[in-house]
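Aggregate trends can hide what the representation actually does to any particular protein. This step matters because it turns folding into a mapping between discrete strings. For completeness, the protein is quoted in full, as a sequence line and a line of structure tokens:
=====
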Amino acid sequence: MHPNGYTKEDIRKILGTSCPEMPEDYETGNQMRRRKGQEMRDGKRPYPTYPAKKVGPNFDENGKYIYPPGSGFRYMDKVDPNSEWNCTGGKVS
């Protein structure tokens, strides 16, 4: 009992609560992940299968992504040759 005469239930009725009332059979995401993992280990659920290589118009026969022509840049084209931070041509100690 609180010193002012209110019980915890009375205070909750007056002020409300930020704690949601979850149903008894509610399962959090972490509990679901653990349950599914245990079911896979027990053999009750099949393991997911993923294609070994990517398929589609943007991938070659080895599953590597084909970049569009003209995309990207060479890093050395962007470096200022006169910059004090450019250490490509000098000795680094």
About this structure: The chain has a mean pLDDT of 80. Helices lie at 8-15, 29-42, 75-78. Residues 51-76 form one domain.
